[in-house]
Design a protein that fits this description.
57% of the residues lie in helices and 15% in strands. The protein is α+β, with helices and mostly antiparallel strands and 533 residues long. The protein folds into 4 domains: 1-217, PAS domain (Beta-Lactamase, 2-Layer Sandwich), CATH 3.30.450; 232-313, no CATH class; 317-379; 387-529, Histidine kinase-like ATPase, C-terminal domain (Heat Shock Protein 90). The chain is rod-shaped and about 180 Å long.
Length: 533
């Protein structure tokens, strides 16, 4: 008994494990088949049982009516003793299902009619009441008195075989059973096909989601495709081409579009018809939630990467600035001594050759002093001094410093200022320095006939300053290094110009972007917030 129980539990456990290891598609497939089999089996049993019960009730009703009618029809035949008519009526009644025998007696108990001719003429004990009995062989015996008014003429007795009735019912329902089996087989095959197709249909989006999750493990953050996605411009026949989501998929993932819908139409994206029809079912909602998670994760990683690079850049700049300040301090005193000595020699000694070499020493000493001043300026920046002013006027002052040189070199300077920009607070001196560095770089990168453009414009509470040239451009491989301290492609200079520009703009809580193509030019775009106080 224990062995049998162990085997039973082991088989059950293995079966459960096997089912658990099946894919969702196969689980759905087998679930549909099992459900169909249970439903069809239940329906078939109900139909057959109902039909058998109906036939049994019909047979019982027919037998009762036949016997009742027969007991009335044979009265005249008993009175006038017409054995042929009695035999004909009994033979006719015996054709009904389940009849085992029919017997008719006169009022003396003599058998005047019987389905078994050998019983004719025999006598039985009369019982003048109506009764029904069942014997051990399953034969139901029915006793009916043959009466008319108060007159008694005999007894009608019949035997009903339940086995014969059951055989009759089985034979009658055999065709119905075969018909049901054929239909069930057809429906089963259709269910197999439909269950397989449905499981495939349901599993496809889950398979796509699974593949994208595998991509995450391989460090590829990709959204999951959803063929049901629709565009809001197609659903609502929208013509607002200025909308951030116009013509784009998944408008609910575009921050500006979400804010615009809430502000203008008081609609939350999760309650929007476009979102609901794009998701479709629960799997669609799962896919779109996954996509939203992926995009948020990508943005978070990008921000983290940007913050990490910024931190490393600041740490590097800080270290280099500290080193530059230390070196500059150490070099500045000897340079001052060299410059003083050169001045003394030029004042107290004569000679053309001596004066020429002393001038070279004096000039190079001055250049070293300028470099050291740049190092100290970058390493120990002056705090911003915010003053209210017009940015266009500040840029005009900068242009005056380089305009003559640009014109002498036969380059084209184009100015396009937006006069609607209001006065706001910024550090005039440092922004002049930043603009001057960019204009000098543009002048160095251009040749005769090239164009230099300086432009301002206001948008969305900010000021844009664009300095663009049609010069040689910046190679793509060094684009990411141009704002690094001490990086330069020139044979002269400290390599701190663009680093200082980037620091000045950052200190103003602004942004600087650069776009460049070889032999087509470079564009620097500065964004500054308009500060009223």
């Amino acid at each position: 008994m224990k062995i049998w129980q162990y085997l039973k539990n082991s088989v059950l456990k293995n079966s459960i494990i096997t089912i658990q290891r099946l894919s969702i598609g196969w689980k759905i497939f087998f679930s549909f088949l099992i459900l169909f089999l249970i439903i069809m089996l239940s329906i078939n049993i109900l139909i057959l049982n109902y039909q058998k019960k109906s036939l049994r009730d019909q047979v019982d009703t027919n037998v009762s009516l036949i016997l009742e009618n027969l007991s009335k029809e044979v009265i005249d035949n008993i009175i006038f003793f017409d054995p042929l008519a009695i035999d004909e009526k009994i033979s006719l009644a015996m054709n009904n299902p389940g009849m085992e025998y029919i017997m008719l007696t006169d009022k003396n108990g003599r058998i005047v009619g019987h389905s078994d001719k050998s019983q004719l003429g025999a006598y039985i004990n009369l019982d003048f009441i109506k009764w029904q009995k069942k014997d051990q062989d399953g034969i139901i015996h029915i006793n009916l008195p043959v009466v008319s008014g108060d007159s008694f003429f005999g007894i009608l007795r019949a035997g009903i075989s339940e086995d014969k009735i059951n055989v009759y019912i089985e034979q009658t329902t055999k065709n119905l059973k075969n018909y049901i089996y054929v239909l069930s087989s057809i429906f089963f095959l259709l269910t197999v096909v439909m269950a397989f197709m449905l499981s495939k249909t349901l599993i496809k989006p889950l398979q796509r989601l699974k593949n994208k999750m595998s991509s995450i493990q391989a460090d590829r953050l990709e959204i999951c495709e959803n063929p049901s996605t629709v565009l809001c411009k197609d659903i609502f026949n929208c013509e607002k081409t200025d909308c951030p989501a116009y013509g784009k998929e998944r408008c609910w993932l575009i921050t500006e579009a979400k804010e615009n819908c809430k502000k203008s139409y008081y609609i939350d994206c999760k309650n929007c018809y476009v979102y609901k029809i794009s998701c479709g079912d629960e799997i669609g909602y799962l896919i779109e939630t996954f996509n939203e998670m992926i995009l948020k994760l990508k943005r978070s990683l990008e921000e983290l990467d940007k913050a990490t690079k910024e931190k490393l850049k600041l740490e590097k700049s800080s270290a280099m600035a500290e080193m530059a300040m230390t070196v500059a301090h150490e070099i500045k005193n000897p340079l001052n001594a060299i410059k003083a000595s050169t001045s003394y020699l030029k004042s107290n000694f004569q000679g053309e050759v001596l004066r020429e070499f002393l001038s070279i020493i004096d000039k190079e000493t001055e250049r070293l002093n300028e470099l050291i001043t740049s190092f100290l300026s970058y390493a120990r920046p002056v705090p911003l001094k915010f003053e209210k002013g017009n940015i266009n006027n500040v840029l005009k002052d900068v242009i005056k410093l380089v305009e003559k040189e640009i014109q002498e070199e036969k380059k084209i300077l184009h100015i396009d200022f937006d006069n609607s920009i209001p006065e706001f607070y910024f550090d005039h001196h440092q922004l002049k320095q930043a603009a001057l560095n960019l204009l000098v770089n543009a002048a160095d990168a251009t040749k005769e006939g090239d164009k230099i453009i300086i432009k301002t414009e206001k948008y969305d509470g900010k000021v844009k300053i664009i300095i663009k040239d049609s010069g040689s451009g910046i190679p793509m491989e060094i684009m990411g290094k141009i704002f690094e301290p001490f990086f330069t492609t020139k044979t002269t200079g400290s390599g701190l110009g663009l680093a200082c520009v980037e620091r000045i703009i950052r200190d103003h809580e602004g942004k600087i972007n650069v776009r460049s193509k070889i032999n087509e030019g470079t564009e620097f775009e500065i964004e500054l917030p308009i500060k009223g106080e």
